[in-house]
């Protein structure tokens, strides 16, 4: 069974390194070495920066793929119309267990990301920069990078920069959740959809993009659009960072030019020669089969043409020895527990879909399959954030990609293969913040006592379903906090005392202490005269 991915897995490069330049020299590029490797960087005026993003076809690398130039112009237009200073946010909240590319960049090349963010801040006239992160190692690296540039959140500085810590959860990386956390609220979507370019952090127009996007912008600003376009496809120039895990010998983050065959990337990581399927784009992505893998190259357009998705850059093959529906069931349970609990499609639909897949796997027959399809269809397009839609996409793709296995389970009660757990998921109790929705507890049944009364399923149907044999089937996932009270009620109401909650909610760990800053520390001095310009780190000051 795969262990959770480390914060910084092995990093490989196909061709010449761009984002990962200097990784062969040190584990982390401090400001001095960063400038030696990448060279100085000068500010770029607003429209020229937006045009540069258009010229290199720069789209968000966090999954949505929205054109960066359009986003930059929208924020500038809103800020001018309202007469307020915009905010720039780097979204490094990588809560998906199959993704590590942004974490690698933030840990090993934080200044490349800050370069891009400061370019945008200078172009927009922003005076607030926020970096959202999920992990201890990432927070430490970013705080050190800000201190190296003399940036902090002290009053009186022309540019105030700070780090926001978000829980390691799927919904915490959603744009509205990051904005809410940056404003001091819980790191969950607010339950309504708003454009960050109109109203983001503190109600100000906000430019939010993920860490790799800002790093790509910094590279293009240094070398220019023409040289940037010499690498990769003409329609999607440059390189891409991918996290490759699943049934591979060497889980890794790999930088590849667009246009490289996907099968070569899988071969590099030691994937099976003929994978049963490859999940592209992460746990909100799509499955493709071995034939599609053979035909696809690394690009948004190519993967979409074969039914896949570049998404958040996660690539996960599975081999022929495991049950693909069993693997999907593990992910489905995790997705259901990641709900923010604020809308019906997320709070009720995803647990129902996970339970429906369980029924299909355990002898529910055609009726269970039809019920699963109905639930999945009902979730699409109705959520308050992107989590229900992304999860529904995963369910639908699973049903479409593994039709032979689906038929074996529906018609014959199973495919005869075990579930080996090759798709990485967090260890129990991984959530590490007060706002974290999963409680760390699970429901369990003493089968020597259970008589199948079904009261528990009536009280908390999101977590307990009555299976075809007349006994309860429990979701193999942490009980969300918003359902914990009803789960406790179900335990108390069980007439046979067969139901219990196992495991205590995880305690919030102590936050890492900030470095001791005496009067001589750079972080105590003003934020570099001329504001953002000198903070860009030209090395001339």
UniProtKB/TrEMBL annotation:
Biased composition annotated in UniProt, kind: Basic and acidic residues: 508-525
Region: Disordered; residue ranges are: 182-202, 502-541
Q: Which cofactor does it need?
A: FMN; [4Fe-4S] cluster
NADH-ubiquinone oxidoreductase 51kDa subunit iron-sulphur binding domain: residues covered: 325-369
Q: What keywords does the record list, in alphabetical order?
A: 4Fe-4S, Flavoprotein, FMN, Iron, Iron-sulfur, Metal-binding
Q: What InterPro entries has UniProt attached to this entry?
A: ComplexI_51kDa_subunit, Nuo51_FMN-bd, Nuo51_FMN-bd_sf, Nuop51_4Fe4S-bd, Nuop51_4Fe4S-bd_sf, Soluble_ligand-bd
The family annotation for this protein states: Belongs to the complex I 51 kDa subunit family.
What protein am I looking at? Answer: Ferredoxin
């Amino acid at each position: 069974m795969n262990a959770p991915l480390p914060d910084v897995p092995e990093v490989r490069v196909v061709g010449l390194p761009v984002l990962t330049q200097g990784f062969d020299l040190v584990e982390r590029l401090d400001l001095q070495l960063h400038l030696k490797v990448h060279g100085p960087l000068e500010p770029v005026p607003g429209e020229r920066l937006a045009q540069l993003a258009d010229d290199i076809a720069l789209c968000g690398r966090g999954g949505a793929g929205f054109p960066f130039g359009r986003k930059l112009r929208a924020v500038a237009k809103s800020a001018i119309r309202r007469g307020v200073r915009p905010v720039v946010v780097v979204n490094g909240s990588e809560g998906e267990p199959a993704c590590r590319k942004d974490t690698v960049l933030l840990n090993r090349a934080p200044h490349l990301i800050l370069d891009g963010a400061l370019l945008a801040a200078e172009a927009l006239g922003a005076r607030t920069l926020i970096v959202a992160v999920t992990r201890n190692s990432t927070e430490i690296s970013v705080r050190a990078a800000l201190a190296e540039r003399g940036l902090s959140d002290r009053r009186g500085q022309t540019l105030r920069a700070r780090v926001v810590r978000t829980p390691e959860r799927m919904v915490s990386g959603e744009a509205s959740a990051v904005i809410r956390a940056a404003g001091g609220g819980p790191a969950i979507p607010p339950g309504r959809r708003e454009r960050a370019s109109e109203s983001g952090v503190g109600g100000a127009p906000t430019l939010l993009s993920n860490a790799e996007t800002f790093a790509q912008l910094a590279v293009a600003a240094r070398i220019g659009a023409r040289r940037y376009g010499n690498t990769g496809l003409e329609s999607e120039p440059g390189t891409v960072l991918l996290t490759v895990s699943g049934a591979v010998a060497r889980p890794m983050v790999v930088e590849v030019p667009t246009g490289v065959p996907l099968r070569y990337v899988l071969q590099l990581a030691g994937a099976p020669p003929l994978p049963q399927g490859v999940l592209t784009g992460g746990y909100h992505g799509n499955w493709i089969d071995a034939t599609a893998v053979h035909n696809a190259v690394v690009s948004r357009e190519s993967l979409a043409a074969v039914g896949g998705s570049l998404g958040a850059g996660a690539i996960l093959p599975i081999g022929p020895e495991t049950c693909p529906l069993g693997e999907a069931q593990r992910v489905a349970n995790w997705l259901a527990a990641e709900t923010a609990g604020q809308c019906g499609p997320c709070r009720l639909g995803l647990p129902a879909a996970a339970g429906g897949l369980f029924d299909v796997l355990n002898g529910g027959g055609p009726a269970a399959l039809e019920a699963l399809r109905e639930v999945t269809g009902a979730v699409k397009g109705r959520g308050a954030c992107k989590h229900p839609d992304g999860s529904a996409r995963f369910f639908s793709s699973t049903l479409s990609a593994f039709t032979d296995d689906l038929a074996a389970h529906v018609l014959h009660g199973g495919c005869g293969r075990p579930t080996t757990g090759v798709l990485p998921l967090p260890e129990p109790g991984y959530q590490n913040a007060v706002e974290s929705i999963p409680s760390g507890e699970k429901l369990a049944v003493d089968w020597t006592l259970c008589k199948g009364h079904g009261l528990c399923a009536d009280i908390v149907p999101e977590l307990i379903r009555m299976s075809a044999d007349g006994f309860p089937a429990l979701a193999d996932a942490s009980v969300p906090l918003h359902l914990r009270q009803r789960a406790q009620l179900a335990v108390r109401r069980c007439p046979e005392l067969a139901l219990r909650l196992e495991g205590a909610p995880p305690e919030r760990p102590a936050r890492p202490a900030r470095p001791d800053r005496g009067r001589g520390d750079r972080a105590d001095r003003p934020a570099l005269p001329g504001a953002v310009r000198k903070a860009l780190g030209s090395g001339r000051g």
